[in-house]
Write a structure and sequence with these properties.
single chain, 145 residues, alpha+beta, seven-stranded antiparallel β-sheet, 42% strand, globular
């Protein structure tokens, strides 16, 4: 089972970063690769089981289901339901941890999934760079203002 793991330090308090990323429907507001998003069936975006249907900047469509969300532990776990990527059983977690030295945030984003062995390395690299690191880089730019 391939695993993707990316971490970063964001120069902002964890509570502030969490406020920006917590909304399961807010990807277009902070991630540069996401064009639009909506929560199906007008569910609240923080309801476990809510499904977000979003489009990437290139027009690809992805549907994901919220599996876990904690305002105390600052994490969000979700699964991909539909994607153009050749993978299955994808589950990811975005987790924030306060760094008390300098009031910064340690951010971790990880995922595990099943796929054909021939595409595993490309998927791990692509998700790690184009999704996880791209999101962290956008957050770092936002808080550098």
């Amino acid at each position: 089972m391939p695993r993707v793991y990316v971490s970063s330090v964001i120069n902002a308090p964890a509570a502030s970063v969490w406020e920006r990323v917590r909304d399961f429907n807010a990807l277009p507001r902070w991630h540069p690769r996401i064009r639009e998003s909506r929560i199906e069936n007008a569910e609240p975006s923080d309801k476990i089981g809510a499904v977000r249907d979003f489009r990437l900047q290139n027009g690809d469509r992805i549907r994901e289901k919220l599996l876990g969300l904690s305002d105390y532990d600052l994490f969000c776990t979700y699964a991909i339901l539909e994607s153009p990527m050749p993978l299955t059983d994808y589950v990811a977690t975005l987790r924030l941890t306060p760094v008390t030295d300098g009031d910064r945030t340690f951010a971790e984003w990880s995922a595990e999934f099943e796929c054909a062995e021939a595409v595993a390395d490309d998927l791990v690299a692509g998700i790690g760079q184009n999704v996880f690191q791209a999101g962290f880089d956008a957050l770092k730019r936002h808080y550098a203002r």
